[in-house]
Amino acid sequence: MLLNTIRxxxxxxxxERIRPHVEQYLSHSQSGFRPNRSTSDVAxxxxxxxxxxxxxxxxxxxxxxxxxxxxxxxKRETLLKILEDIVNEDEHRIIRFLLSNTIxxxxxxxxxxxxxxxxxxxxxxxxxxxxxxxxxxxEHALKEVRPVLPKPLTPLExxxxxxxxxxxxxxxxxxxxxxxEEVGKVLEKYNLQVNVDKTEFTNLSRGETIWxxxxxxxxxxxxxxxxxxxxxxxxxxxxxxxxxxxxGDKITKYTKLKLYKALVKIIRDYGLINIRKLHGIYKRxxxxxxxxxxxxxxxxxxxxxxxxxxxxSLLYEKRLKSDIARLLEYRSNxxxxxHGVKQFYMMRHRRSDTKSQRHxxxxxxxxxxxELSCQAWLARQGGVEGTTKAPAMPLTAAPxxxxxxxxxxxxxxxxxxxxxxxEFCAEVRLIxxxxxxxxxxxxxxxxxxxxxxxxxxxxxxxxxxxxxxKLFDFLVLHGHIVKGS
Length: 485
Description:
Blueprint: H1 5-25, H2 39-56, E1 60-65, H3 76-83, H4 89-99, E2 102-104, E3 117-119, H5 130-145, H6 155-159, E4 163-166, E5 169-174, H7 180-188, E6 200-204, E7 215-216, E8 219-220, H8 223-245, H9 253-269, H10 275-286, H11 292-295, H12 304-332, H13 341-356, H14 360-367, H15 371-385, H16 419-428, H17 432-449, H18 454-460, H19 465-477
Antiparallel strand pairs: 1-5, 1-6, 2-3, 4-5, 7-8
Helix pairs in contact: 1-4, 3-5, 5-7
């Protein structure tokens, strides 16, 4: 069934809005049209039951019901009544609108006259919302079916799933016989017709082998049988492909070229033959300088060569900015010739090594400016060397050594700072990009309120309170924000 674009868009919007509510309403046994669920869950559950039968030496009965034209038999008023307890009022109103006044136009080959007719039952085929609405409708019906099923008696029965469902394909699991007629009577209340003749009964037991060739959602329950069947299907497919592709009388060269460009060339050009290897190459090339995970979506927008050129240009830009920042550092340290750079690095390395070494005289010079710290240090040294036998006296603790400056050169946002802001970020140990974000928040809030208090700033940015105070004072000092009274 073909639907207009507006209806498709509206159905998509409603589907995204109701999905969390639907996930809470549906039982774990339903795998159809749910995120991260598929027919693999149904096939795996049947195989798990078969394994349980072989391990525990038990017998399990499975009844797979077949519902005729399930999507076309839904009572819309009943469905809308069920949805009242699941979705909110706005979503319920939109779904009612989508299900009301459904007009269907039929197209018959050779017919000259089209007669549209109204549909007041079922959900529109081809609508992305229809399968989800059906699973809700079926889940409500199954809640009345469950009391009819044989009750679990042993602890093992309580562990086993009582039903396995994929949309309208429902299998009931029990240790006793399942009365399908009683199940059909309950489902008839919701206008869901069970085809008793097509209902499939499967007995899982260690002594029987017929269940191994039983097909569930396209997969045989027996592992070996399923593998053999898949091998036969793949061989048959390859034979058909050989007959169609290699024999010239079956397909023209023009069609072969179109298929090659659509199915083969695009795989080769985009490096999709070994996608992990391609991503590994990108990470080794750009991992230290660019966030490849951030740029990966652009692979869908650019041709391969354009995408590579795009990444190379970004890498070149980053390296160029780094070179410019390094040259600015040389100039700020008085270096005007490149041959002086080596001497500069050698002297800076020697200076850092000298600062890291602790000498007695340097410690005295470090404490001589503060009288209390100097006294505390001298008393501590005297106690260590045993030069004083006086009783220990409470001493004032020396002030904590300030943290070293942060090297912000080359960090994100470094080029957007002026010299004062660079000094501030290095002194406060604040990353340039974080400084830009925090200052933008504070400036915007000050513009909105007319002024800003320190307490308000601390509620806006969740960082160390001392850093917040220093950032607040810095912005006030340079006139970026107005301090509130």
